[in-house]
Please model this.
Amino acid sequence: MTADPHRLTAVRQIAADISWARTPNRSERTAPGHRASPMSLDYWIADVRAKGIVREEDVEAAARNAHRAWQRQNSLRAADARRRRRRQP
Model:
């Protein structure tokens, strides 16, 4: 017997709301995900260290450059996508 997908979604949302209501420190709970995100400098520091190309004292500067390059690549991709959408009939 299959559960109704709408009911299942509602039950999961309720469970998530209860879980968040019982979370005393939201920042602490979300910190691991934030550090693992490309939006975080911690992500890029780990990435640069893993590649082992730069000296340890230069890791933070290299991570900042890698992050900035990633942001600019995303910006360029978004601009290209907007341009392609404008050309479509």
In short: Residues 36-89 form one domain. Residues 59-87 form the longest helix (29 residues). The chain is about 75% helix and 0% strand. The radius of gyration is 21 Å.
